[in-house]
């Protein structure tokens, strides 16, 4: 018997993809950002979107969000062709993007943020605050998350702010939720909670786009994965059709034979950094260790363990209450970065954009900043000498830039990181402290950063690496120290370290 025509549109909608983007193109002046890109999302599935920095992921996400308009192609949501000209259009179509930079008002309560665009109104025409708090609590119950709707949003950790963004998506009856690098600032336990929430979303029939550089996470949470490279669609496959090597190959167009290269032996030189009984008012408690020339000393800890505070203290950035720091046997006075630099220690901050780079200035000035006195005469910088030195490091580190005059904000994360490493080496160092050296960097650039750090240790530097990434900790370190609650709780030689031992020590 033929199907009832009145039921046919509903049946077709149920079978239709949640989102279908075909032949998407986007151009900026002098740049083809996207060309003939396809992305098809199934309801109730997690679809990973991957690619190197500059592959086009961010541009595609902004087209989904209505931030950018497409120049070519078509978009269908629930089987119906649509145009997403503004973020309001995207929300109205049931598409919500949770960007890496959380877009919440810190002074507002959780409930106020959730219903920011559509406050429920009572009979008298005033905002129904009781209803707002009740509906916010109901939304959190749907995703299995417990937070006070009356809490001030700015007081919440990043992981809970993400849950508020997800609850906002449900308040808008979103059928598609896009998550852009959602775990970049989360602890392992918070990642587990986020994954539980994602699975609840898919159980409700919501399609999730998961954007990440972290391969292990993608293999754990995704059902399908689409890879972009140089603004073009490379592949869309079930996650089970990939292994790590094949996914990396699709992303960068080549295989990486060894993500963690080891060009060094196990020879260690003299002690170049000595820290004794170091304590601060904010976090650190009686920290003591030594770092030797020619080794990579890895520090691991969960969020709040004190890794970043230690990194800033040992270069003289943060004040200390008690203890001593010596570089090459010479003492470093607390809160004295100028002396730290002159003694030969430099810091690669985890926040390279906020604390490292001058985004509007060119590559040349960003790289030479710490060593300008080397190129100066009578108080004036000799630009020719400066340019020659910068070019030598650009060539040595294979920094991809059209010219030394290119604003550094236009470089990929990996190339920005190379410029910052070169900045310190141009000055001359005994110790380089790197805090989360591969945060926000794609897998191809990661392998280059790993090789570079290994090479620097091979050239006699002491590399002190703070990281929350277990693979790079185990893959690159010669020794590992674990922190919890501002203290060092365990130490391991490379061959004796295991993930289980490290996590047990990190939990404290």
From TrEMBL:
This is Ribose transport system ATP-binding protein. GO terms for molecular function: ATP binding; ATP hydrolysis activity. Residues 19-255, 254-505 form the ABC transporter domain. Keywords: ATP-binding, Cell membrane, Membrane, Nucleotide-binding, Repeat, Sugar transport, Translocase, Transport. It is a peripheral membrane protein. Signal peptide: none annotated. Belongs to the ABC transporter superfamily. Its main location: membrane. The keyword Isomerase does not apply. One of its GO terms (cellular component) is plasma membrane. It is found in: Cell membrane. The keyword Secreted does not apply. InterPro entries: AAA+_ATPase, ABC_carbohydrate_import_ATPase, ABC_transporter-like_ATP-bd, ABC_transporter-like_CS, P-loop_NTPase.
